[in-house]
């Protein structure tokens, strides 16, 4: 799937600078010039296939084959809700905070070390992820860019969700064939997003160079054996007997603690072995239903439970392949960065 390709681009009239900025925060390509004439706006829309956003009926009245939205509402949140409703915008199709708010250019991730002298020391010490606008040079980090905007954007889109068919897609599901690097991506994303992740991870158990089973570990402590070759169990997956007792002793409480106290819930992975337990399936759905953003890997198979998880309207599916691991990582980090609030003061370990 290529979700970014489906998102419309906009050109806003002189009255709608703040709306253009809000759209940029969401990740939409929103062109805006305070001094653009009506004719320039129409031609920009025609040449660049942009949707015109205007409050001016004269701009709206045009014989050109362009799409025009006559924006209603005086507050930006109302305007955003109106546009989202009219166009059926899907905020999951764009990466929040991926554009410069001043000049609309896509921002570029910058290595933290390169900015040691470019940002205040406190910011350098407390922030992990930085991006720079290649056009105007402005540097963005979560505190300036994300935190202030996140809540009211969520409010605006949450309200649009009740009327305009939009939901905030806060459950990021990574999928792909076995061995493609889903777990590596999740670990890298969690490291970049900072502290506050809770949930569970699974890993291979190897003996003498051979895989003999899988472990399950809560990110905040307890661990156990998820499956093992030769384990006597009514739940057999391939060569492995699944240990439902440890799944429910480690995995279920890890998710319950995460729903109660995490910034980010991690589930690596949701697959066949984990599905022998109804208690575990319920815990997965509670995590997905909670307001907390979720980063999960999902096995690339079809069954009733996995199909239902993937089909959730609040889920974004990121498929990872051998050739686009980096792009998938930045997409996941970008999506979650927009959803997460800043770690507590002094946090970010
Ligand atoms: Zn810029």
Descriptive notes:
This protein is an alpha/beta fold and 349 residues long. It folds into two domains: 161 residues, no CATH class; 169 residues, P-loop containing nucleotide triphosphate hydrolases (Rossmann fold, 3-Layer(aba) Sandwich), CATH 3.40.50.300. Strands 12-13-11-10-9-14-15-8-16 form a nine-stranded mixed sheet, sandwiched between helices. It has a four-stranded parallel sheet with strand order 2-1-3-4, with helices on both faces. Strands 5-6-7 form a three-stranded antiparallel sheet. β3, α3 and β4 form a beta-alpha-beta unit. α8 runs parallel beside α9. The longest helix is centred in the middle third of the chain and has 22 residues. The radius of gyration is 23 Å and the shape is elongated. It binds zinc ion. The site of zinc ion (ZN) has 8 residues, from loops.
């Amino acid at each position: 799937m290529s979700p970014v390709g489906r998102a419309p681009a906009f050109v806003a009239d002189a009255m709608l600078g703040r709306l253009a900025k809000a759209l940029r925060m969401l990740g939409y390509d929103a062109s805006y010039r305070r001094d653009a004439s009506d004719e320039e706006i129409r031609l920009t829309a025609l040449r660049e296939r942009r949707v015109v956003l205007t409050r001016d009926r004269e701009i709206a009245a045009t014989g050109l084959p362009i799409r025009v939205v006559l924006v209603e509402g005086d507050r930006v949140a109302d305007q955003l809700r109106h546009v989202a409703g009219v166009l059926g915008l899907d905020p999951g199709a764009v990466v929040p905070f991926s554009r410069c708010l001043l000049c609309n250019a896509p921002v570029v991730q910058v290595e933290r070390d390169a900015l040691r002298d470019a940002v205040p020391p406190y910011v350098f010490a407390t922030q992990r992820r930085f991006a720079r606008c290649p056009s105007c040079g402005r540097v963005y980090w979560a505190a300036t860019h994300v935190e202030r905007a996140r809540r009211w954007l969520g409010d605006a889109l949450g309200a649009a969700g009740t009327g305009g068919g939009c939901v905030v897609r806060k459950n990021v599901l990574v999928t792909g064939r076995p061995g493609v690097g889903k777990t590596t991506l999740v670990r890298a994303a969690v490291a970049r997003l900072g502290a506050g992740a809770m949930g569970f991870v699974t890993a291979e158990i190897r003996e003498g160079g051979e895989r003999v089973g899988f472990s399950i570990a809560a990110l905040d402590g307890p661990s156990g054996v998820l499956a093992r070759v030769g384990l006597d169990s009514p739940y057999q997956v391939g060569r492995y007997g699944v240990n439902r007792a440890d799944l429910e002793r480690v995995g279920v409480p890890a998710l319950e603690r995460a729903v109660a106290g995490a910034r980010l819930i991690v589930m690596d992975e949701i697959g066949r072995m984990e599905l022998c337990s109804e208690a575990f399936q319920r815990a997965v759905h509670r995590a997905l239903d909670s307001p907390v953003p979720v980063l999960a890997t999902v096995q690339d198979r079809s069954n009733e439970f996995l199909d239902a998880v993937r089909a959730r309207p609040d889920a974004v599916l990121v498929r990872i392949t051998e050739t686009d691991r980096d792009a998938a990582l930045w997409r996941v980090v970008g999506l979650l960065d927009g959803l997460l609030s800043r770690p507590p003061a002094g946090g970010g370990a």
